[in-house]
Write a structure and sequence with these properties.
The chain has a two-stranded parallel sheet. The mean pLDDT is about 80. The protein is built from 4 helices and 2 strands. The radius of gyration is 16 Å and the shape is globular. By secondary structure, the protein is of the alpha+beta class. Strand 1, helix 1 and strand 2 form a beta-alpha-beta unit.
Length: about 120
């Protein structure tokens, strides 16, 4: 996918007619967890929007999870730079960010105290 320079770069999104939602949750995946927030955002901003969902959000505040969160945070920063420059995030990068940081089964064990 080829991205062009964002003509609105440097201007606040609300003045450009574009919107960005970044939504984090504690669940281990994006499926069946973000749909209500996504739908409401789509109703509020039906066009020219980007939605970034980040599963396992609480892991970012746990120092012992740094081996998983530091690389993911680097991807989020890359997406932010890309969005600022072009007004879009390449689908492959978006897919990588929205994927689980750890396997769902491991997350379930941690949450249930069986890790």
């Amino acid at each position: 996918m080829h991205l062009t320079k964002n003509p609105f770069a440097g201007r606040p999104p609300h003045l450009c007619g574009i919107a960005l939602m970044i939504c984090g949750r504690g669940f281990p995946n994006s499926r069946r967890n973000f749909e209500p927030a996504i739908r409401q955002f789509e109703l509020m901003f039906p066009a020219n929007h980007t939605i970034l969902t980040v599963p396992e959000g609480p892991m970012f505040s746990a120092p012992e999870a740094a081996s998983a969160t530091v690389p993911r945070l680097a991807l989020v920063k890359q997406a932010g730079k890309q969005y600022a420059e072009t007004g879009a995030i390449v689908p492959a990068l978006l897919a990588e960010i929205t994927s689980p940081m750890i396997p769902e089964e491991v997350c379930a064990k941690i949450v249930n105290g069986n890790a």
